[in-house]
Amino acid sequence: MMRALIVDDEIHSREELEVMLEATGEFIISGKCANALEAIQAIKKEKPDVLFLDVQMPVINGFELLSMIDEKLMPNVVFVTAYDEYALKAFEENTLDYLLKPVEKGRLDKTVRKLKRMLNGGEKPVYAGPDIKKIPCVLSSKIKLINASDVEYVKSNEAGVYVICPGGEFYTDLTLKVLENRTNLVRCHKQFLVNIDQVDEIILHGNMLAEIKTKSGRHVPVSRRHLKILRGRLNF
């Protein structure tokens, strides 16, 4: 049985697809999500084998969501769309397959066969995706989108990953690895990323240790391992 996560902002589409997937006898529905942020949380928790992903969703669309999933947790992706141009782009993004709405049983059966071949082969899916321009953060019951260019630094600790910018400190479900790979933020420490454009000073200490002072006066640690990389980026 394949563990499937359904992501679609329309409740009727989620329910209809759930019924069709369960009727095949090949799936356990591990969750249904109405938006990208719910999906990121569910993927981290449920670790589904397959993601049935709507393309057009408010705030963060399906293509943008792909960029926000940690590669270690990336499921096989099947786009579900009502628009042919998006279906064609799905192939350009190297997704496994696509389904056009309304989903037809015969077409779904072909997708199921393809999924079973992929999962039996044990290949880890890798999908191309756009760079992250806006980082989704949790703010009470809302999603706050922070421009990546406005970020001073990002830190990770036992409580999670936090984005620090002039407006404050905000929790995000995105991992440091995803943010390092999909934004211009640079690793300066095992638990920190920094925006080079926000660096005011690099204060050198003994033993090849250092710290960054941002333009707003915040201090960010720099490890020995990453000091050389920063020197190269900043040409000093």
Summarize the structure.
The protein is an alpha/beta fold. Helices cover 32% and strands 33% of the residues. It has 2 domains: 2-121, 3-Layer(aba) Sandwich (Rossmann fold); 134-234, Beta Barrel (OB fold (Dihydrolipoamide Acetyltransferase, E2P)).
Helix and strand topology:
Blueprint: E1 2-7, H1 11-24, E2 27-33, H2 36-46, E3 50-54, H3 62-67, E4 76-81, H4 84-92, E5 97-100, H5 105-121, E6 134-139, E7 142-147, E8 153-157, E9 160-165, E10 168-172, H6 176-182, E11 186-189, E12 192-194, E13 199-204, E14 210-214, E15 219-222, H7 224-234
Parallel strand pairs: 1-2, 1-3, 3-4, 4-5
Antiparallel strand pairs: 6-7, 8-9, 8-12, 9-10, 11-12, 13-14, 14-15
SSE order, as H and E?
EHEHEHEHEHEEEEEHEEEEEH
Q: What is the annotated CATH architecture of the largest domain?
A: 3-Layer(aba) Sandwich
Contiguous uncertain segments of 5+ residues: none
Going by helix content, strand content and strand pairing, the class is: alpha/beta
Give the overall shape.
elongated
Query: What percentage of the residues does DSSP assign to strands (E)?
Result: 25-35%
User: How many E strands?
Assistant: 15
Whole-number count of domains: 2
Task: Name the CATH class of the largest domain.
Answer: Alpha Beta
Largest sheet: 5 strands, parallel
Provide mean pLDDT, rounded.
91
